[in-house]
Design brief:
about 500 residues, alpha+beta, 4-stranded antiparallel sheet, globular
């Protein structure tokens, strides 16, 4: 609870206390130091309430985008409901258009996204703003709305005790700095590039999956059988019926029929162990990043969200510090999430719910990780896991867990699969870093740590093919802001960013 006084001359057309949150008022004052206009000044068209009814739903059709599909300024089409295409005329005014801004009007309001190019066949869900803009860069607007100043402005306008709600008409009164087109482009292009990289990562994931499925005969998983018989010849060191279900034996058969030999993971790895949680461990602003099961994110680790364990506490579990080439695998709760340890994850540590598989070869690790993520791998993990309420994959079973021997598969296939996975992870990471960059650039301008002239010069140089001013700005970014002393850089390797951009441009020209 907070108490504050509002000068009479600062009162607007609202008298609810929530509207005058000190943090929001302070941010608005900073914005007003610059020329600014309400978002409504640029709005051409706005929609928020498509007449959706459950009778319109179908298994295949037009995606329905809700706030749960907003990820890092980008729309995800995973896990969406769909509308029968026969109702297209009913929803034609709500179809997403390229460059539209969409954001939530209920619950955790905000989380703006830009509709990508090309726009997906989709409509917005109820209470989701869908607005078309003119005269302003939509990617810049997206970055601003996701930055603190934009987010607080949206949240101060909400009403409701149980669930926050925001009127569409109120939301578009958010004040937006009227910076030059060069600055808008410079910031907006970071968001646009993040969108392209995320889409590239998605395509690489599909390519990797197709390549894997093709090699293993387009394997089709069997459902769990309720009744079955098992020949004594195939019995191993397990006598529980679960282990010999035809669903699992069929997966093993598919691997063998592809010509791959199965070997225990314990023979491939130098060591398999797990981490821990030291008694009375302290977590501070400086320390060792500590990975938990919930920190896995689509084949990687959400590093920016990791808690930092103080150095003294971490010393007691130093045996599980991560080294390049290792694989980490969640073994409790949500079993089967996987990531490969590269330079970004080196030195991190893990808790007891994660196994460390030390292979120490990045190509082999990415190949094994791709197998573990595949349907075949997940089914064989399912075979080894026990515990109905809280699933658990024991280290003993993990050491005996069968994986394809990397030396028994076609070496070109192994290399291509590993490279596809490695590139996919890199593109996704860079995408996340670029969305963070856009927000930090807005913050740096508002806080006076960067000048408008610096960004304008950087944008004009980029248009001429000169990256040096851009590199100078990006090199001063840290996860906690611009020019923060003793903080590591946001981009550990800026050259990798530019190499990836060059590769994207080369791929686009060759298409």
């Amino acid at each position: 609870m907070w108490i504050s006084k509002v000068p009479k001359d600062e009162l607007e057309n609202r008298i609810d206390c929530h509207f005058y949150q000190p943090d929001a008022i302070a941010e608005i004052k900073k914005i007003k130091n610059f020329p600014c206009k309400p978002l409504s000044y640029y709005v051409v068209e706005k929609r928020s309430e498509p007449p959706i009814h459950t009778s319109h739903y179908a298994e295949q059709g037009i995606h329905i985008i809700s706030p749960s599909n907003f990820t890092d300024f980008v729309i995800s089409l995973e896990d969406t409901y769909k509308v029968n295409p026969s109702y297209i005329d009913l929803f034609k005014d709500f179809i997403l258009k390229e460059g539209n801004i969409i954001y939530a009007l209920v619950g955790d309001v905000g989380h703006a996204c830009v509709v990508p190019i090309p726009a997906p066949k989709a409509i917005t869900y109820r209470r989701t703003a869908n607005i078309s803009l003119k005269g302003i860069n939509p990617y810049f607007v997206c970055a601003f709305l996701n930055y603190r100043a934009g987010d607080l402005q949206l949240k101060r306008m909400t009403t409701g005790v149980i669930q926050s709600q925001l009127r569409l008409e109120d939301s578009i009164e958010v004040l937006i700095p009227s910076w030059s087109s060069e600055i808008q482009t410079y910031i907006g292009d970071k968001v646009r590039l993040a969108e392209i990289l995320r889409e590239r990562s998605r395509h690489l994931e599909e390519e990797s999956r197709d390549k894997f499925n093709s090699y293993f005969g387009f394997f089709k998983a069997l459902p769990l059988a309720k009744f079955f018989k098992t020949e004594s010849l195939i019995l191993e060191n397990r006598i529980d019926t679960w282990f010999y279900n035809p669903r699992f034996l069929n997966a093993v058969k598919a691997i063998q029929e592809a010509g791959a030999k199965l070997i225990p993971l314990g023979k491939l790895a130098k060591r398999i162990t797990n981490g821990g949680t030291p008694a009375n461990a302290l977590f501070t602003e400086k320390g060792i990043p500590w990975i938990r099961g919930k920190d896995f994110e689509h084949g990687d680790i959400a590093v920016e969200l990791l808690p930092l364990m103080d150095f003294a506490s971490e010393e007691s579990i130093k045996r599980s510090r991560l080294k390049v080439g290792g694989i980490i695998l969640s073994i409790k709760g949500t079993v089967g999430d996987v990531a490969v340890v590269d330079e970004l994850l080196v030195g991190c540590n893990i808790n007891q719910d994660i196994a460390l598989i030390e292979i120490n070869n990045l190509q082999t690790s990415h190949f094994i990780a791709a197998f573990l993520e595949s349907e075949l791998g997940q089914i064989l993990i399912e075979q080894q896991v026990y515990g109905a309420i809280n699933p658990f994959f024991s280290l003993e079973n993990l050491r005996l867990f069968s994986v394809p021997d990397p030396n028994s598969v076609d070496q070109n296939f192994k290399m291509q699969l590993a490279n596809l996975r490695h590139t996919r992870v890199r593109c996704k990471r860079l995408s996340q870093l670029l969305t963070t960059t856009a927000k930090l650039l807005v913050e740096a301008l508002i806080e006076g740590k960067l000048t408008e002239d610096e960004l304008k010069i950087a944008q004009e140089a980029l248009q001429k093919g000169d990256r040096e001013p851009d590199k100078a700005i990006l090199s001063r970014l840290t996860c906690k802001g611009y020019d923060i002393k003793d903080e590591p850089p946001l981009f550990p390797d800026l050259d990798l960013l530019y190499q990836t951009i060059d590769q994207l441009n080369a791929d686009e020209q060759s298409e």
